[in-house]
Amino acid sequence: MKKKGLIKKAVGILSGIVISLEIVVIIFIVITKISGGVPSLFGHHMYVIVSPSMTPEINVGDVIVSKKYENETLEVGDVIQYVGRGGDIDGKIITHKIISISGEGSGETIVTKGTANTEPDRPISRSDVIAVMKYKTVLIGPIYKICTSTAGFIFLVMLPLAGMIVFEIVNLVIELKKEREKEEEEQDDQL
Predict the structure, then answer these.
(1) Helix (H) and strand (E) counts for the chain?
(2) Phi-psi region of 140 (alpha: psi -120 to 50; beta: other; left: phi over 0)
(3) Cβ-based neighbours of 95, under 8 Å, separated by 6 or more
């Protein structure tokens, strides 16, 4: 009898931990989506490449991990993320390679270009740079896309959470039924 009680208690604790972790993940995802931000951890951001402008170096669907730019030295050849200004790129995060840096101080300009593009981008300043690419990963891309999609959110977060809630409700009903049966047995013994 004690062994079953310990197992039940361990399962209850484990369920509580899993539900707590699920809630933390949900809160993180919701806050990131509401703020319009990019998921980040310890100053590193993950970006999914959505255009072929950097092929063959970086392909559509690749996930790159970039470190938040904090005014460190930039060099020709660095792949950076910056917020586009004007035209069809206005407000979008652009991932392109630095092809030249000129000027100094507040007059410094950085010119970038997608490796598949024929023309360079409009010059930007250091203040436009938001991150510097550290590496790319091909395998995380599909997983990341699934996790950040509505269907993936439902499948990976909401469905398991709903399953755990149903599991807990079923356990509660079973325990209440056992308690009721035990009370009925005690009443029968008294008669």
Answers:
(1) 4, 7
(2) alpha
(3) 47, 49, 53, 54, 58, 64, 79, 80, 81, 133
Place of tokens 């930007």: 124
User: Which candidate, 128, 38, 36, places its Cα nearest to that of 80?
Assistant: 128
Tokens of 168: 């807990």
Range 35-41 contact pairs with CB under 8 angstroms and sequence separation of 24 or more = 38/93, 39/148, 40/68
pLDDT digits (tens, 9 = 90+) for 98-112: 999 998 877 789 999
Q: Would you state the structure tokens that stand for residue 135, as one six-digit string? A: 């590496």
Helices (H), the chain: 2-35, 140-148, 150-153, 159-190
Amino acid occupying residue 22: E
- pLDDT tens-digit readout, 162-177: 888 888 888 889 988 9
User: How many whole angstroms separate alpha carbon 46 and alpha carbon 37?
Assistant: 10
Neighbour count for residue 19 (Cβ, 10 Å): 16
Residue 121 is given by DSSP the state P
Q: What is the pLDDT of residue 148?
A: 67
